[in-house]
Design brief:
It is a single chain. This protein is an alpha/beta fold. It folds into two domains: 4-39 and 78-116 and 269-341, FAD/NAD(P)-binding domain (3-Layer(bba) Sandwich), CATH 3.50.50.60; 124-267 and 354-378, FAD/NAD(P)-binding domain. 29% of the residues lie in helices and 28% in strands. A five-stranded parallel sheet has the order 5-2-1-9-22, covered by helices on one side. The chain has a five-stranded parallel sheet with strand order 11-18-12-13-14. A three-stranded antiparallel sheet has the order 6-7-8, with no helix packed on it. Strand 20 (281-282) and strand 21 (285-287) form a beta hairpin. It is globular, with a radius of gyration of 24 Å.
Length: 448
Amino acid sequence: MTSKRIIILGGGFGGLYTAFELDRLLRRRDDVEVILVNSDNFFLFTPMLHEVAASDLDMTVIVNPIRKLLRRVKFFCGDVESIDLENRRVTLWHGDDRHHHEVEFDHLVIGLGSVTNFYDLPGLEERALTMKSLGDAIRLRNRIIANMEEADFECCASVRRRLLTFVIAGGGFAGVETAASINAFIHDAIRFYPNLSHEQVRVVLVHSGQVILPELSEKLGRYAMRKLADRRVDIRTGARVARYDEAGVHLNDGTCIESCTLVWTAGTSAHPLLEALSCRKDRGRICVNETLEAISQSNIWAVGDCASIPDPRTGRTHPPTAQHAIREGRTLARNILARLRGRGMRPFRFRTLGQLASLGHRTGVANIMGLNFSGFIAWWMWRTIYLSKLPRLEKKVRVALDWTLDLFFSKDLVQFNTALARHLSTVEKVSGAAIPAAPQAVEIVAAI
């Protein structure tokens, strides 16, 4: 039998769990080659990303090296430049010199995820922070700490106000959990800054709807609003960010929030590589049938944020959530092998089990199997469920240890600086002594 090659593009939940299942099912077969392509050499557990930004977790505990997760599946750490569906090949590149590889495939799984969409709003692309990657979380944490350090000795009241005002745009899960976690972090850390007070800190959550967390029930959304308001979070509902400049964050109602920190969680779009593909699409995502195969292309499959999957139960499409992507990946892997063996494929069937959000200070909201939970029990469920989903026992233990230590010790205030240490390049002779020239600030990319 001729060897077949399966290429999986993207190491998020959908792509990785497709590789997981293929790794398991193909353990005793050598007639199928599987290659997973991802720009990072790790899998990021995104539901815990806000806890890294808020110093609740160390940045290394929510990432897993892909090479430790897979045994039989090959891994290519690099980026996708182009996809040629007609000739069945993808062009990949890696390294500082952008070394290119053209790799042919028999089956292609597209799980490249989504990208942030700023909707061409003035100033956002240049100034706003996002919360989609590990680097984003570290950058936000560094910004918060840097602002507090500067504000502690800032004598100008207006400048201090801008430094201590943090705006989060988007009232969905990402925005609410980010606002709640950084608000708790700042108020926990404020006691180490003698010139700052709780009253000077301002966290603003901007949401276009009337109730935050629209994915949950209105009752839970209003509960979350009350809890956040009790903790000094300023919630602006029925408002949108219009632009962001030196003066601050401008809303569509004409108000301006003086701030030098805007975290944008209010919009995503399908990966730009999908735009050039000759596939039927729905809002940029590839339209697939119930077996997760592209409707207009054979042996082309899509998963996660890249796929528009029909849900016959609701008449709509399945939501692009992690719990769906995990099950999609497993179903997709089995269907590819069924196609290779000439057997029938199974349709993807899954109903959302529940949704949870952490609100900080050991409170949360959750809807599990149609039942609503709030307060401590919802927060405990959030941690328990996500801890169980985190890959590898080692990472589970490390997260549990971090959470346990957080009960007894204050949050870490260390900035992760990626600048090179001072070094001697040229010297000037002054009275016979060697004086080092003024060093230049050099930044490097931190490999996490």
